[in-house]
Design brief:
The complex is a heterodimer of chains A (about 120) and B (about 180). Chain A is about 45% helix and about 15% strand. Chain A is an alpha+beta fold. In chain A, β3 and β4 form a beta hairpin. By secondary structure, chain B is an alpha+beta fold. Helices cover about 35% and strands about 25% of the residues of chain B. Chain B has a six-stranded mixed β-sheet. Chain B starts with a helix and ends with a helix. Classes of the chains: A alpha+beta (about 120), B alpha+beta (about 180).
């Protein structure tokens, strides 16, 4: 069984890295997690972002959650905020879309227009 | 909702909005029944507000903050022949012991029972979103075994500098729960 001692080991391993990471979160990926979002499938989308950000080493990004964004019929909605750039809003997001968003947008700097609200409207 | 674990994820958002510092998610299961209790130490609801929360359609448009989360959860319980109860105490009513307890009871063998689903992903999502809130999760299985996760214990082992929503810590929590469930 997983033990709390393993957490102490994680603590020792991570101590040095945390300080570096704190300065690096300049892109915020925000997943809508209100009733509308959850019902539409936001939970697997959130978990896909957490995993992909890690897998693709997108260390400049943090994944956070928010309430209802106000466009419930387009949920799951994911907004990407980056300093000095306009907010990008992805709608009807599915876990399968997440690796590409992280690769091309978060790491590559190019939003995927076909997934955005502009394409859906 | 497709799974009760999604209702849990949704209902707990209310506890987070109510500025709870400890949220308990307690599941007690037999072969025939399931009880889901969500208990928080947040700011609580007044009796008047509680009435609007149970039935949003009977209210005026002023209460826009009242959502569909609780009515959906209530429906999921009642359609199995079960029920949902809420007790809540505001800080004014009870400064020492305020907060909300939502308890839903289900008959599992009813044809309209919604499966519990991926409760592990619900917990991981909650810890990811609210690393500063504490969660106690207990699931008593039909065979009497108990699945347990307490972020206060995790926090003690991790110290102050490692946030609970670090990837490694979330993975540890996921694996710990999966192991206990025998996945």
């Amino acid at each position: 069984m997983k033990s709390l001692e393993e957490l102490a080991a994680i603590r020792n391993k991570m101590k040095d890295r945390v300080a570096i990471r704190e300065n690096n979160g300049d892109i915020r990926i925000v997943v809508g997690m209100a009733t509308c979002g959850i019902a539409a499938g936001a939970r697997p989308v959130l978990n896909a972002f957490v995993e992909e950000v890690r897998k693709q080493h997108a260390d400049n990004a943090t994944v956070t959650q928010t309430g209802c964004i106000g466009m419930c019929r387009l949920e799951p909605i994911v907004e990407v905020f980056e300093g000095g750039k306009e907010r990008v809003t992805y709608v009807k997001v599915k876990p399968a879309m997440v690796p590409r968003i992280v690769k091309e947008h978060i790491l590559g700097g190019k939003p995927i227009t076909e997934y955005t609200i502009g394409a859906a409207e | 909702m497709k799974e009760l674990s999604l209702n849990i994820l949704d209902i707990v958002q209310n506890s987070i909005s109510a500025e709870a510092s400890l949220i308990e998610i307690l599941l007690a299961e037999t072969d025939e029944t399931l009880r889901i209790t969500i208990k928080d130490d947040g700011r609580g609801m007044s009796p008047e507000f509680l009435a609007t929360v149970m039935d949003p359609f009977s209210t005026t448009r002023k209460t826009r903050k009242v959502g569909m989360g609780i009515p959906l959860f209530k429906l999921a319980a009642e359609q199995t022949g079960g029920e949902l109860t809420i007790t809540s105490r505001t800080r004014d009513m009870s400064p020492e012991d305020h907060g909300t307890v939502i308890s839903a009871f289900f008959y599992k063998n009813h044809m309209d029972f919604t499966p519990l689903g991926d409760v592990v992903s619900t917990l991981i999502s909650l810890i990811q979103g609210c690393p500063d809130v504490d969660f106690l999760f207990e699931h008593e299985l039909p065979n009497g075994e108990m699945v347990h996760l307490d972020t206060r214990e995790m926090r003690e082992a991790l110290g102050d500098e490692i946030p609970l929503n670090s990837f490694e810590v979330l993975e540890w929590a996921r694996e710990s729960l999966n192991e206990q469930y025998g996945f």
